[in-house]
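Two proteins, back to back. First:
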Amino acid sequence: MEAASVSLGNYTEAPSVLSRAMSSTSTSSDAAAEPLPVRPLRADAARNRDKLLAAAREAFTEDGADASLEGIARRAGVGIGTLYRNFATRQALLEAVYVDEVEAICSAADQLDKLAPWDALVAWLRSFSDYATTKKALGAELMAYLDGEAPVFQQCRQSIVAAGAPLLERAQRAGEVRPDAELMDVMRMVGGIATIANAEPGQIDRILAVALDGLRPQPAA
């Protein structure tokens, strides 16, 4: 979905989906202005940022609103000052983790072209299932800061659909998926299964397998 990170000696710069989402959906008079240049991160700073994102993803998924920024910093093995240098507010950290998850699910779609159509679609939908679990925890808290039509949500939805639609269409052209299946319906189904409360170990995988089998073409009556 996005350009790869660009290495510049000891610096690493990665384009931000979030910053582009905010600029590309803006309706203000300066929407066409050039985006401000992003200052590259030093390699060690980039590693700290990645550790913070990973720690925050785990903490928000496990603890939800009870996850503290201090606890996230400890989990990442950095000081609270390092966290605030990267993410000035709790909202900024939540948004960054959310966008990072979307980038991962979109990148996963790009890496499945060597698989058979059905296998590629199933592999991506299982990745989407993992994403949906994290999204539930992040989305609930982000809604305290943003409404459902905020630019970051809109852009992320568009990016996920753009990543998954070719996989579904390819499987349909190959006769592996019923022609009446629509991506948004499939994603809602998978997301609902992934977030079943109080599921037993392995139960979600079993339910998901049964549901995905329902995407197969139905025999003629």
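And the second protein:
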Amino acid sequence: MSSEKPPGKKTGQQITASQVAGVWRLRSARRTAYGSTSDWFGAHPDGLLIFTDDLHFTEAVTRTDLPPVVSGDRLSATPQENRALAQGTLGCYGTYTTGEDGSLASQHVLGSTFPDWNNTERGADDVHVTVSDGRLSQVLRLGDDDTVTLTWEYAGTAGAPTTANQVAAAWRLDSARADTPGGTVQPFGPEPGGYLIFADSGYFTDVLHRPGLPALASGDRLEGTDEENERTVRDTLVVFGTYTVDDAGVFKDEQVLRSSFPNWNGMRRDTSSLTETVHGDTMTEHLDDGNGVVISLTFSRQK
């Protein structure tokens, strides 16, 4: 990860579109609610925030102390494991706009692992972003007298690739199928939602979910019921990491940094188990999990 300042950033000034675009690695996440401040995702959170040059974004945040699911199966987690995973990871994706001065004006959250955020708008009263010395400060308003401050460090660009790279783009999920020993299932429903962004600097983020999940009864991500937590773990997935392409720009491999399914943390996948095939504005992903399950995802390029 680069520690250099992003080109064109001006210390102490509010961001412009050219300044916010890029890949940002999470350094801290602190919640201040009703006069009390605490760690939002533990003392050492991790995550990636990607703003593409063409106004798409993904955001993934996770605790770094989540243990693997004992059964090895995300769909067979215990209630205690579901609670830890649902509370310990968060992902969202969508589009953003800028004002006349180039500052961040709004975000349209198309989907999230926290269903209360699905199809919501964030205006100036909901999110505030500034940049200084290669760090991005993001303040989110969760409610009255309840805010979260996330600090991100610049990691790379997220624009049009300057070298051959077939996958570098924002991709929206169109279909998802899993072929299992027991038959074929649709892991995120018949009309799945999600973004996969491959940044030209070699980072990626997956945020996938089943649209239409009901909002949490409490309205608080940390107060989900056992049923709500199970639904979050079963019907959403977040993965982020790094990837490479070969000389022809064809996807070569990926390294998972973190996932909402912590059994995948640190996993390297090459084309023997994972392929990303691009034909025009369509990309097809095939993932063999090594346990008799083959997942097929189809994405459309976002412009």
